[in-house]
Amino acid sequence: MIVALALSAAVSAALGTLALLRVWPAAGVPASRPLVGALGAGLGAGLSSLLLFAWLLLFGPTRAFPPAEVALLGLLAFAMYRSRRRLGLGTKQGEWLAGPARLLTPIFALALVAAAAAFVAMLRQEPHGEWDAWMNWNMRARMIFLGGPTWRTAFAPELPWSHPDYPVLVPSLVVRAWLYAGHATLLGPGLVAATFALAAVAVLVTALAALRAPSQGLLAGMVLLATPFFIQHATSLYADVPLAFFFLATVVCLALDDRAGGATPRFAMLAGFSAGLAMWTKNEGLLFTACVLAGIVASGRRAGWLETRRRLTHIGAGLLLPSLVVVTFKLTLAPPNDLLSTLGVERTLGRLADLARYGTVARAYAMHLVTFGANGLPGAVWPLAVFAGALGWNPVERQRPWAQAVAIALGLLLAGHFMVFVSMADELVRLLASSLDRLILQLWPSALFLGFMATRTLEEAGATEPLTPFAARSAALHQERTQ
Amino acid sequence: MIRLRSLRHCVALIAILLYAGFSTARWARRALHWPAHAGTDEVSVYERRFDRLRQALPPTGVVGYLGYPDPAGRPSDTVPSPALLHFRRYLLAQYALAPLLLVEDTTRALVVGNFEPGAERVPPAGFGTAGEFGDGLLLFQRGRP
């Protein structure tokens, strides 16, 4: 069973990585081989989810899916072998062993091992996850997997409390793991959670390493691993960490697109695909996608309107496939959203006119943002503020159009959630207490990426002695050999 | 080896390493609290309670559900929110019996009774007891004497 589950993870990761290699621009980003692997693990899981959903509609939850998926992987691998494309990859391995990264790599490895061990221990203690996991995501997975020909009951309107209108990326991946394993093991949801948590850390570290410096990636990765709610919530088996992964992947692809400077449409298309997978994970993904598009438009003056139009068109192209799946799901299976369908215009207007609600939400925002990531120290923003204050901003990175677009998008997203709290929540204080940290968590890896991209690296700030000629030559040689 | 040039750079690095170090120690401590026995969590225990009942039910379809405590009951020190506890137990029953659909009414031919262990329970009007599965779990069937 463990082997079958490992195979399910390996197949989706390989599918994602091969698909990425197929589309990765030949003149891509140097040192991006680890990044392709990290992105491939998460985007591959998203791709597998889309495939399984199509399979469900055509054949139901049958055990023929794993062999079919493996066959598809084989075809993709064969196509890759035949094409023999020259890839713009490389590992920049020498730089992981030089300068500040030489000190930070073992510390990061220690933090990763400790976090992984805690993850497993917490999951063993609560293998079904927290409330929302068993009442919603895993319950739906059980109804699909065990329901056989009656799997559509999982979306029955008799279960309004389980939000049957929610997108099904997480349940479908759990079903997929069970199809590989042959039965509904509790390790399935745990594997899905571990995949996205690890992929989020890996994308953050490798993207910053490729675009800035390995030391910057390692420091950001340490902060993410050290954020208690990130690991704890991953073991809750909710959909927020997978959603955070797709937000981060979108933002990283936007940064890559900016760096490519219009030479290729592929990174923008990948950003669109990733945003589409966010929509396929949770309804919040819709708001995120709208905010990203708005952010790109708002930062259009700096990028130039022609460039903005190009970017929007390509993002739209990337959005097509996942959007099609989301629309199919909403039209064929999902009942109306319980929150929206119970909204009355009068009640909503009444809430919007209640100024006290704005104050309550604003206070909660301030409190949760400042204390987010508290781990004995008061919160994660304080060490980050000290780090940024001490090293300063990188003026070039900070001014890039993608950075401005993402900053605007994240701000809009927070503002959008603010208005949702004000206008929709009946039990406002309870809802803020139970969901605000989750909303911040969804944005957290993207915010860390943005912050560490815009902050000067230790090397840029002249924190270390320059490499000795020998070390520099050895790093260069190492890099040459590994590329 | 790295030689740091100024206090500012030292402070930057220490700020992150201190934050990461706090959490790493916390994760290591948490990992040492390895649960001795798996499957002793509330949901697993609750699921096992339904094992025998599950075999007496059809694999799919819709059945009724009656639960406890009374959601309109008065809050007490031990049960501060009877409605929430009632709902939680219903959700856990639904999770344990999926893919069967549980609806909170007595309009179906079969009704699952999930009651306080040891409490006396009479079947709903028009139903008879089709099975007792211990720990407060019963199955009622319409028209059964």
Brief digest:
The complex is a heterodimer of chains A (483) and B (145). Chain A is mostly helical. Chain A has 23 helices and no strands.
Structure write-up:
The complex is a heterodimer of chains A (483) and B (145). Chain A is 76% helix and 0% strand. Chain A is globular, with a radius of gyration of 22 Å. With 483 residues, chain A is mostly helical. About 3% of the residues of chain A have low confidence. By secondary structure, chain B is α/β, with parallel strands linked by helices. Chain B folds into two domains: 34 residues; 101 residues. In chain B, helix 4 links the parallel strand 1 and strand 2. At the A-B interface, helix 5, helix 6, helix 9 and helix 19 of A face helix 1 and helix 4 of B.
What are the salient characteristics of this protein?
heterodimer; A: 483 residues; mainly alpha; 23 helices; B: 145 residues; alpha/beta; 2 domains; 5 strands; 17% strand
- Within the largest sheet of chain B, what's the order of strands? 2-1-3-5-4
Which parts of chain B are unreliable, with pLDDT below 50 for 5 consecutive residues or more? none
User: Given the C-alpha coordinates, what overall shape of chain B results?
Assistant: elongated
Low-confidence stretches of chain A: 465-479
* Count of separate structural domains of chain B: 2
Number of helices of chain B: 4
**Multimerization state:** heterodimer
Secondary structure class of chain A reads mainly alpha
The span between the termini of chain A is: 37 Å
Give the strand tally of chain A. Answer: 0
Query: What level of helicity do the residues of chain B show?
Result: 25-40%
Mean pLDDT of chain B: 89
What's the main sheet of chain A like?
none
Mean pLDDT level of chain A:
90
Round the Cα radius of gyration of chain B to an integer and report it.
Answer: 25 Å
Measured by residues with Cβ under 8 Å of the partner chain's Cβ, the largest interface is:
A-B, 65 and 47 residues
Overall shape of chain A:
globular
